[in-house]
Automatic annotation (TrEMBL):
Entry's transmembrane regions: 12-29
UniProt xrefs under SUPFAM superfamilies: alpha/beta-Hydrolases (SSF53474)
One cellular component (GO) term of this entry: cytoplasm
Keywords (A to Z) from UniProt: Fatty acid metabolism, Hydrolase, Lipid metabolism, Membrane, Transmembrane, Transmembrane helix
Family membership: Belongs to the AB hydrolase superfamily. AB hydrolase 2 family.
PANTHER family: LYSOPHOSPHOLIPASE-LIKE PROTEIN 1, LYSOPHOSPHOLIPASE-RELATED
Organism this protein belongs to: Papaver nudicaule (Iceland poppy)
Listed name of the protein: Phospholipase/carboxylesterase/thioesterase domain-containing protein
Name of one Pfam family that matches: Abhydrolase_2
Molecular function via GO: carboxylic ester hydrolase activity; palmitoyl-(protein) hydrolase activity
Domain Phospholipase/carboxylesterase/thioesterase, chain residue ranges per copy: 52-259
Gene Ontology annotations of biological process type: fatty acid metabolic process
Length: 265
């Protein structure tokens, strides 16, 4: 009876631990507020310095999480290149999720099982519907005047999987896609839809070796898949890291985006 109860509760337990770890990370790594003796300096930029290119970063959260809960991430990007960066942290709609026994929670698409392996079932239709929503956000930003090659899509876990699909299926070259603890969420039939322009979008893929929710094998299968389809991918493995985002990963992301930014929008 205990084994049956454990199997039933296991998905909820994994999801709760994942959400708790991510939330703790965000709270822990928030920068300390300035002291009263050091007031914030607003709009005191050196006018002789060339302004950084206008850029846009879209962050996609993981299963059961929310956009606002991840907003503190942007406070870690303190380099001058991010002075003119617009950030957006949308939230997924509540949907029933198969791996959690049909429980309704924020989810970009359905997930059949946890842990997720390289051979886990795919939800192609659900992924494509979610991709359309992401593309609508990107299109709106492009229409507002942002160079598509200064647009970066980033995501953790389920959001990382959606990031990959959104970048590969967008008709234009983007600045880059950053996948954290994600996986390839679609089958071979969708590969045919990847345009030559999308193949020029660089991918940064980070995954913890101790990840028990999205297994390392699922992340490790990503780069060979991308390379086979002519897509550049930089893969980074993090020893000892479970299903969470580390400060090292975000520092690496900051440096990576800086090297991809175009000089003008």
């Amino acid at each position: 009876m205990r084994n049956i109860l454990f199997q039933f509760l296991k998905p909820f337990f994994l999801l709760t631990i994942t959400f708790a770890i991510t939330s703790l990370f965000i709270v822990y790594f928030q920068p300390s507020p300035p002291s009263s003796s050091s007031p914030l300096k607003i709009h005191q930029e050196n006018t002789t310095t060339t302004m950084a290119a206008r850029s846009f970063v879209l962050w996609l959260h993981g299963l059961g999480d929310s956009g606002p809960a991840n907003e503190p991430i942007k406070t870690l990007f303190t380099s001058p290149e991010f002075r003119n960066t617009k950030w957006l942290f949308p939230s997924a709609s509540p949907n029933p999720v198969s791996c959690n026994n049909g429980a309704v929670m924020p989810s970009w698409f359905d997930i059949q099982e946890i842990p997720i392996s390289a051979t886990s079932p795919k939800d192609d239709n659900g992924v494509l519907k979610a991709v359309q929503k992401v593309h609508a956000i990107i299109d709106k930003e492009v229409a507002a005047g942002t160079n598509s090659e200064n647009i970066f899509i980033c995501g953790f876990s389920q959001g990382g999987a959606l990031t990959l699909a959104s970048v590969l299926l967008y008709p234009k070259t983007l600045g880059g896609g950053a996948v954290f603890s994600g996986w390839v969420p679609f089958g071979s039939s969708i590969v045919e839809r990847i345009s030559s322009s999308a193949k020029k979008t660089p991918i940064l893929w980070s995954h913890g070796l101790a990840d028990g929710t999205v297994l390392f094998e699922a992340g490790q299968a990503g780069p060979p898949f991308l390379e086979q389809n002519g897509i550049s991918c930089e893969f980074k493995a993090y020893p000892g890291l479970g299903h969470s985002i580390s400060n090292d990963e975000l520092q690496s992301l900051e440096s990576w985006i800086k090297t991809k930014l175009k000089s003008s929008s």
